[in-house]
Amino acid sequence: MVGFIGRRLLQSIPTLILISLLLFFGMQAVPGGPLSAFAFRPGMSQAARNAIIHQWGLDQPIYVQYLQWVKSMLTGTWQFSFFMHRPVREVILQRLPATIILMVTAYLIQQVIALPAGIIAALKRYSFFDQAVTFFSYVGYSMPTFWLGLMLLLIFAVFIPILPVAGIINVRVAGAPFLTADYNAWFLQHPITGIIDILTHIVLPATTIAIVGIAGDSRFMRSSMLDAIHQDYVRTARAKGLSERVVVLKHALRNALLPVITNIAIELPLLFSGAVVTEAIFSWPGMGQLFFQALEAFDYPLLMGILSVSAVLIVLFNLLADVAYAYIDPRISYA
Amino acid sequence: MLDSRQLAGETLIPVGTGADAEDVGVKQFSFRELTYQRFMRHPTAKWALLGLGILIVACYGAPLWHLVFPNYIQAPDQFSLLDAGTGPSLRHLMGTDSYNGHDIFSLVLYGGRFSIFIGIGSMVVAVIIGVSWGATAGYFGHALDAVLMRVTDVFLTVPALLLVPLAARVFGEASPWKIALIFGLLSWPSISRIVRSSFLSLREMQFAEAARALGVPNRRIIFRHLLPNAVGPIVVAFTLGIANNIVLEAFVSFLGFGIQPPNYSWGSTLAGAQGVLVAGNWWWITFPGLAVVVTVLCINFIGDGLRDALDPKIIR
Fold it and tell me: End of a domain among A50, A75, A100?
């Protein structure tokens, strides 16, 4: 098992090296170079320009810049953000928790609804419920996540104003922005108010991500369960005279869950994309929102940092999917 | 004719069973006919195809509708500030936007041209690259395969969702052609994976071996002998990719990194709508989004029908 994980980790190293090359040299293709962000300040003198170029090390040969970037990604501060004037690592790590909270919540909602819905739909095939699930999954699957988010906002924050429009916390209640030192102190003093505050804010974005996910997952669960129900061992179990409950839960469901669990792990990158989209809509202070802010400002080191972190995350997600697959299914060997 | 097809629907006989079939007097069907029949038997695919056809005609005919109904369909450069922010009415079927007073219905029609164009255009690019890439990797195998697939992995590892707006921003001044090209350059990897895996098994088949033994050049084996056998999954991936890219384009343009006024797509029609969401003008957000949903739904159904129709293993 450990050897398997180690081997997979080693395999992902060339991929990560290639990604770093793609990102770095792709960025060099920016018309006007990475400095173009500063071009928005017309009053700048040539001397000031040169000073900035020197300060950011942009006057060095390109391969030196690349190596320096890689070095700082591996050991250091991940370079400095052009506009936030802080180390990129600090900025990203401050934003990462919000994204993870959102992903985990959305994921829980998604599975709690999708799995039972898929199982019931399969057990009562062609019933009204089954048809409804199928219809919903087609529609949900075809909906742009960002538009769904906007529609939910419109309904639950504007027409029926019961939920907040944006953000992760109510700054007026907490007195400070999320995860600042003041906020953390406040949160420790008022944990219950703090959690309720986050919960009311997370409902809409998490539901948005979950709805699209439920559409895919319930369909997957349904077809997997249908496969299992028609297997010989299920017929055997029925023939033995086992109760329907035992047949369904112990014999069919346990086998049907195998591909579903693998699929869940495979879907993690999709979940990440969903989070990126919803963050942009709900001003959720996570990595996705940060990315679009950085894009707006053309904050080149920050963009590279975010892209690298998401690439590493996805490599890890894929690894997780493989491990889950090998771990759950006894027929798969680690070799 | 129709009767014989309906009859044959129950008793499909694979092509090539030759004389026996002739004797019984059952018509034989080519692959194309079989595919057509299976597609039409899918419960929703044919209606989805009809719906998509209507949508395409409606959108691409927009300049014509503008000439025929000048009071109801306005060109994107015609708007009146006096009408800004009014709800749906007979004059403005889907209301107007809150800033310029554009007629939303007209923008949906005009914008659909670019949205659909980008969806299809990008996947054409993706199929051209993905098929050549995947076929090369799968057919030649070994070291070449390993290198080519590593590159594919790289593209699959960085989320397209982040790369697309970045690329659109970097290559600035987004024309529909450029956006389609960018989307295509970022959506080929999944196609190349599909092609590679079918080529890995196809190249070991006897007909491929026979062709090689006869001295048929590699290029001809790839394009004439193997590729036609891999066409099913490619067509399905192509169709579903169109739906994907229409949604992605809507998001990117909505954020202002894709198509921008004076050009309109469904996404850029929505740009700015969130700012006035609180004012409650639901029509601005609802209708362009519905256009995306309906289009994507149709395309997904068609993809579903094609999957059933093109998979030779499913014989119903």
Answer: A75
Does residue A205 share a domain with residue A59? no
Number of domains in chain B: 2
Q: Calculate mean pLDDT across residues A188-217.
A: 91
Chain A closest-CA separation from residue B147 CA (Å):
10
Task: Choose the mutation target among B147, B148, B162 for the interface with A, i.e. most A CBs under 10 Å.
Answer: B162
User: Tokens for B51?
Assistant: 């719906």
Contact yes or no for A65/A73 (Cβ under 8 A): no
Q: Across residues B281-287, what is the average pLDDT?
A: 88
In a domain, B314, yes or no: no
Q: Which two tokens stand for residue B279?
A: 């004012």
Collapsing DSSP to helix, strand or coil, B96 comes out as strand
Q: Are residues B25 and B137 in the same domain?
A: no
Print the domain residue range for A112. 90-328
Check if the beta carbon of residue A299 is closer than 8 Å to that of residue A111.
Answer: no
**Cβ within 8 Å of residue A165, ≥6 positions away:** A153, A157, A158, A282, B277, B278
**Tokens linked to A50:** 């040169």
B165 and B67 within one domain: yes
CB neighbour class for A253 (10 Å; exposed up to 12, middle 13-18, buried from 19): buried
ipTM, 2 dp: 0.84
The phi and psi torsions of A80 (rounded to 5 degrees) equal -100, 140
**Helix, strand, coil % in chain A, rounded to nearest 5:** 80, 0, 20
Give the best residue of A17, A25, A135, A150 to mutate against chain B (max B CB count within 10 A): A150
Record the pTM: 0.86
Between residues B27 and B303, the one the model is more confident about: B303
Write b or e for each residue in A272-306: b if 16 or more Cβ atoms lie within 10 A of its Cβ, otherwise e: bbbbbbbbbbbebbbbbbbbbbbbebbbbbbbbbb
- Dump pLDDT digits (tens) for B142-157: 899 988 988 888 888 8
Do A40 and A95 lie in one domain? The reply is no
| pLDDT above 90: residue A102 | yes
State residue A183 phi and psi, 5-degree precision.
Answer: -60, -45
Is there a single domain that holds both residue A206 and residue A60? no
Total count of residues recorded for chain B: 316
B159, B170, B274 member nearest A30 (Cβ): B170
The alpha carbon of residue A270 is apart from the nearest alpha carbon of chain B, in Å, by: 9
Taking the Cβ of residue B206 and every Cβ of chain A, the question of whether any pair is shorter than 8 Å is answered with: no
Separation in Å, CA of B165 to nearest CA in chain A:
8
Q: Which residue has the tokens 């900025």?
A: A91
Contact yes or no for B169 and A298 at CB 8 A: yes
Of B158, B139, B159, B137, the closest CA to residue B149 belongs to B137
B267 touches B254 (CB < 8 A): yes
Question: Coil, strand or helix: which one is A80?
Answer: strand
| B62 CB within 8 Å of a chain A CB | no
Would the pLDDT of B5 be above 60?
no
Q: Say which of A158, A277, A306 has its CB closest to residue B277.
A: A158
Which tokens sit at A118?
């898929």
Report the alpha-carbon distance of residue A282 to residue B277 in Å, rounded. Answer: 12
